[in-house]
Specification:
Blueprint: H1 2-25, E1 36-39, H2 49-63, E2 71-73, H3 80-91, E3 96-99, H4 105-114, E4 119-123, E5 132-137, H5 139-153, E6 158-163, H6 168-184, E7 189-194, H7 201-213, E8 218-222, H8 227-235, E9 238-240, E10 254-256, E11 258-260, H9 263-274, E12 282-285, E13 292-294, H10 303-318, E14 328-329, E15 335-337, H11 345-349, E16 358-359
Helix pairs in contact: 2-9, 3-4, 5-6, 5-10, 7-8
Length: 364
């Protein structure tokens, strides 16, 4: 008994020692000494994804006036070149680095290993290290709410969706949008066009036009610019934007947009580092935390429909219900989530199938 007790005490002591060592390795940095670097997939002027990250960076500075000026690098492609950019930021004195696109993940992990005293945060990935955490938002919640609007506003019962890359993040968004639409209009079908790109205004616009030609009278999107909304405005077709309030690109036809408030996370992170309580967590916030939300509604959206959206939003925020709770069927009619079951975060993060109502395939 004493031997087992002694063994347990030794094991616990070692564990505490390891925790202490890990904590000691990441020392607090006073707010006035935090120099942050941001790596962007597109230009700040895209009006969408990168623009909203940069708005979040600005919010971080507004809330921390003693924070030194941050460094940004735009138009960094996903791939080996991102490692060079990350390394360059560290050499320029950045002790906190944010990588804002999925394809930076493996390269950031490698750089993080070489710089154990630097804090790294990666957006939308799943790999962590002692000095690297991940962050993302439950955009599927806002997507679902926007789908309710699209499903109620369509007259043709055909919705279009301009889709960036065939990865779980985008698939999850398409599914949430479709579930929302079919919750108010079971006749709805959602047609997909893949861009195989995050930011390509020309492709985005052409994809929107092709979906309109295919009969879609409301267009949803997962793309980084305002090109698809512009195409919809020109064609007189309703559009659900993304990333930012896209109404400036489609003043008459924009219904609403699922949008990001990245500043909530950036402000939180620098404060955690300054207070010495940062940990390499996997942050996945949603409507409740305010990281995602809906842009204001077009006046064409009836008040009763707005109330329906608000009611569903409250249910999600309260935890009473969430989007991927069963029953849910895939597009082949197979039951994927049973009536009383809930998809786990891991299952949602790895989603690789379409729900009933989606017309399209997922490229390998």
């Amino acid at each position: 008994m004493k031997k087992r007790l002694l063994t347990g005490i030794i094991a616990l002591s070692l564990a505490l020692l390891m925790i202490g060592t890990a904590t000691a390795a990441m020392k607090a940095i006073p707010i006035q000494d935090i120099k942050s670097g941001f790596i962007y997939i597109g230009p700040v002027g895209d009006g969408g994804y990168t623009f909203m990250h940069d708005q979040g960076r600005a919010y971080m500075h507004e809330n921390n006036p003693d924070l030194p000026k941050s460094v940004i690098v735009e138009n960094v492609p996903e791939g080996p070149d991102s490692a060079r950019v990350i390394e360059t930021l560290v050499r320029k004195g950045c002790n906190v680095v944010f990588g804002t696109s999925f394809g930076y993940m493996d390269f950031m992990v490698d750089v993080a290993k070489r710089h154990p005293d630097t804090y790294f945060m990666h957006c939308s990935g799943y790999k962590t290290a002692d000095n690297m955490g991940t962050y993302f938002g439950r955009m599927y919640q806002a997507r679902y709410l926007s789908g309710i609007v699209a499903g109620a506003m369509t007259k043709s019962n055909v919705l279009g969706y301009v889709a960036a890359q065939p990865i779980p993040e985008v698939i999850r968004g398409i599914n949430a949008f479709t579930l929302g639409a079919r919750s108010v209009n079971p006749k709805v079908k959602v047609k997909i066009i893949w861009l195989f790109s995050w930011f390509d205004p020309g492709k985005e616009k052409e994809a929107a036009k092709a979906l309109i030609d295919a009969g879609a009278d409301v267009i949803g999107m997962h793309a980084d610019s305002g090109a698809a909304p512009q195409a919809c405005e020109e064609a007189g077709v309703y559009v659900i934007g993304y990333n930012n309030d896209m109404s400036k690109f489609a003043p008459k036809m924009h219904l609403t947009s699922p949008i990001w408030n990245w500043g909530k996370y950036y402000d939180y992170t620098v404060k955690q580092i300054a207070h010495g309580v940062w940990a390499p967590d996997q942050v996945w916030w949603g409507l409740k935390e305010g990281l995602v939300e809906l842009a204001p509604f077009n006046e064409a959206v009836p008040k009763s429909l707005q109330e329906t959206v608000e009611s569903r939003k409250k249910a999600i925020i309260s935890g009473e219900w969430d989007v991927f709770w069963g029953p849910i069927w895939d597009q082949n009619g197979e039951l994927k989530v049973a009536e009383d079951a809930k998809m786990t975060d891991g299952e949602m993060l790895g989603m690789s199938w379409f729900v009933q109502g989606v017309e399209g395939t997922i490229p390998k």
